[in-house]
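Translate sequence into structure tokens.
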Amino acid sequence: MNLIRASAGDEQEALILQSVDRFLDRDVRPVVHALEATDTYPAEIVEKLKTLGLFGATIAPEYGGLGLPASIYAKIVERMSAVWMSVPGFFNSHLMMAGAVQRFGTEEQKRRYLPRFASGELRGGVALTEPDCGTDLQAIRTRARRDGDHYIVNGAKTWITNSVEGQILAVLVKTDPEARPPHKGMSLLLVEKGPGFKVVRKLEKLGYRGIDTGELSFEDCRVPADNLVGTEEGRGLQQVLNGLELGRINVAARGAGLARACVQESLAYAQVRKTFGKPIAEHQAIQIKLADMATRAEAARLLVEAAAAAYDAGGRCDLEAGMAKLFATEAALENSLEAMRIHGAYGYSKEFNIERYYRDAPLLAIGEGTNELQRIIIARELVKRHPA
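Result follows.
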């Protein structure tokens, strides 16, 4: 039974979030420490996410999804990240892939793939990054050459979420390497695992553990021409960038959740840990840290809320998503460091959560576009919206 759909007939947000909280308390919180410590893929948690319907969270109901607005989706992600930041990673990249099909795919592609994406039968993500290409996506080298009713794909991708355990990826390729500007020769292909699609290795990471992040190679991988997202070549980069808006809201929500978790644990610890005969929460130096941490966490939450509302309004929200992603992820970074300082040696110990927050937070400043890039996007959008 789809737990969220069963409780959301009239879109009662509180009931949806209660279902998520019960799932976190019952199925995630008791096992997160052990799974994260061993970098174990949490198969049972992934199955529970399928049951909850979260692999179809933002997919339209007509294709079997929940059709949740970004405002509710972001709150789900924020709650999950406060418990284990890796959990929303299993469906974020997956939903970006689904979003590309839903927005730009043919009706046949939607009918063929979206119901299977929504159920989690087919699970995957987007394959953009390459060994020599990250932020500058126009520099990708993976090539897809048309051969009759197929494309022949050759190249390599790295740092691809859901690529080891998943079954399908939306792969950004160059169908015309000579096109100028380069983005006019870039396309998006749905590539299912099969001959020529090789997972080279699972990558080990500082944090964000449990989730499968892989390095891939494509060697004469034959992909049906019908798997080109849409009907025209040369639209791939625009299709990907459109999906990054929701991806950045997701990452921002993770930052808000992590920042909040740091506040909650630091506040509780500061009231029981004593020095010089009183709880450290009564020391001014700690009070200043707690005040700043709480303010950052609340401001991050509000920026995420604003970005989600802008996304739900239907227009471009590069500015709002960029601001939310920038501030919330920096808030997570700063709060994780302050939480470790408040906890002292206990924060540095692997027996407690703080060191995990400290390892997880840096990824947020890198993923879905570095925070340096977010600042450029924000400035450009400000100028565009407020011409002199």
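Note: The CA atoms of residues 141 and 155 lie 7 Å apart.
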